[in-house]
Amino acid sequence: MNVLFVDIETSICEVVGVELRELGYDVECLEFSSGALRAAQAGHVDVVILDVPASPDARRSAYKLADELRRDGIAVFFTSTLHPNDVISRHRDRGVLSKPYGVKQIASWIEALGKDCRGEPAGAHVR
């Protein structure tokens, strides 16, 4: 399963990327959402994990990106320090994982989205 992980915090990108690779996922990490659409469209991406920043402008950009990714048929779920109810309703249905979270929680979401998108189990399984 190919995963694109987008979070403005470099250390989170690095740690989550390493741990998801250890679970068997192919992971690309980006610190900025500006390149995420291009990266998702250029390569085969099954799931995008997108952090929703606290600032209103950055949040709007994240939601716009999620809309564009979904129009392209790419599964998206969110991580955030915000409460799930603060993530706008049109995106809440696909999942919001509140920080702090564990990599196995992320892997569970990836698996669920992989099943939803393809109707079959995704590649790696949570240990």
UniProtKB/TrEMBL annotation:
- Gene3D superfamilies linked: 3.40.50.2300
Q: Which residues carry this modification: 4-aspartylphosphate?
A: 51
Superkingdom classification of source? Bacteria
- SUPFAM superfamilies per UniProt: CheY-like
Q: State if Membrane is listed as a keyword.
A: no
Q: Which residues form the signal peptide?
A: none
> What sequence ranges are listed for the domain Response regulatory?
2-114
The protein here is known as Response regulator
* Protein source organism: Stenotrophomonas maltophilia (Pseudomonas maltophilia)
Q: What is the lineage of its organism?
A: Bacteria, Pseudomonadati, Pseudomonadota, Gammaproteobacteria, Lysobacterales
